[in-house]
Amino acid sequence: MDQGVAAVVAAGIAFCGVGVGLLGARWQSRGALRQAEATVQAALKQSEAAVTAVIAQARHENEQWRRGHRRDIWLEFHQIVDDFGWKISECRMAAFHRDPSRHEEGVAEMRRLVDAAFRKLHQVEFESPGHIATTARVLVNNMDAIKFSEDRATRLVAARSALSAIDESAGSVAHAAALECREIIRRRQVSEGDLLALRLSDIPLLSDSQRFALIEAHANRDRGRSMREFDLFVESYEKFKKEARSHLDGE
Asked: What is the model's pTM?
């Protein structure tokens, strides 16, 4: 009997020992899992931080590249506009000295520069922030307006040169008409437009386009237009340069 009781007690003690052992093992596994989870979370945070840093660096490098690319395009555009500005001065000086050949050469170069500006404008608008693209478009339109005016001035300079070249060798009627036309143009009386047109018709050495240029210039004497066009060109040019510099400086 005593031996049976002892066996039962021993079995109970062994069972309790197994239970305690299992409980301890379970707590140990929970601790290991928690430690593993903490290690994984730390690794994930480090990985996220590394990825964020790489993305930020890539964005910074891309922005620097974009700024450099924009700067190159803007400098090319700036050079075209700057060359155009010098051509304005040359053309107007040629017109002042009544030099049709020099004026025509200058206007031909202005046409080339305006065409180049329009081609480059497509890149400027594609690569630039909206406000800079808008300013560039206004600037090129101002260039085109000046080119149109100087193109018309070319025809006028050539017509005036042809009128001044008419002398007695053209015949008495044509010579007298040319002298009277030059006097009408000198007086600058718009009311004499019909008389000018009538007397120009007596000069067969002039072409129809030359007569039209003289009549149009006499009827539309807006002497301040060319200066207003130039002022608008300079204003938009300075605005473009200011906005481009501010963008490149990160303002």
From this structure: 0.66
